[in-house]
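Aim 2, interim progress: modelling of the adenosine-3',5'-cyclic-monophosphate-bound target.
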Amino acid sequence: MQKGNLTLTMIKPGAVKKNHIGPILGIINENGFTIKAMKLTHLTLEQAKCFYAIHKGKPFFEDLVTFMSSGPIVAAVLEKDNAVQSFRDLIGATDPSEANEGTIRRLFAESLSHNAIHGSDSDENAKIEASFFFNQMEIF
Ligand code: CMP
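Predicted structure of the complex, ligand included:
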C-alpha cells in the first residue's frame, strides 16, 4: 500500500521549557521535512486526555496527560515521502535510553515519560492527530 506523506508532531512541554524548539525544528528541516502547519499552544488536561485516548487505562496515562498539559507545546504537520516511518526514525525509540545516537529523543529527551517529542504511529492516526490541531484550511 502507498505510504502517506504527512505526519503530526508535538514538541512536548519539557523541550519547549528548555528552549529546544529552534534546534528541534532545525533538525526536522535538515532531514527533509516541510512544515505544512504549526502552532504554539497549551493543552488543557481534557484535551490531552482526548489526544491520548488510545492510551486510556494504561498505567502511565495519568502522568502522561498531566505532563502534556503542564506547559506550552508546539504542534506541527510535517510532509515528506513515507512521513510516518521516516519521522519515527528521526525521533528514535520512545524510551530515549534505547534511542539511536543522533535521534531527536536521544539528543533532547529526559526520560520515557518526558521524551521531548511525539510522532504519529500510522497514516490513519496522522490524519486523526492533524485534524485534532488544524482544520483543512490551516494545512498548507
Ligand atoms: P508518545 O510518542 O507521545 O506516545 C505516548 C507517550 O506515552 C509516549 O510518547 C511516552 O511519552 C509515554 N509512554 C509510553 N510508554 C510509557 C511507559 N511505559 N511509561 C511511561 N510513559 C510511557
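Residues 55, 60, 64, 94, 112-113, 115, 118 surround adenosine-3',5'-cyclic-monophosphate (CB under 6 Å). Residues 24 and 104 are 7 Å apart (CA to CA).
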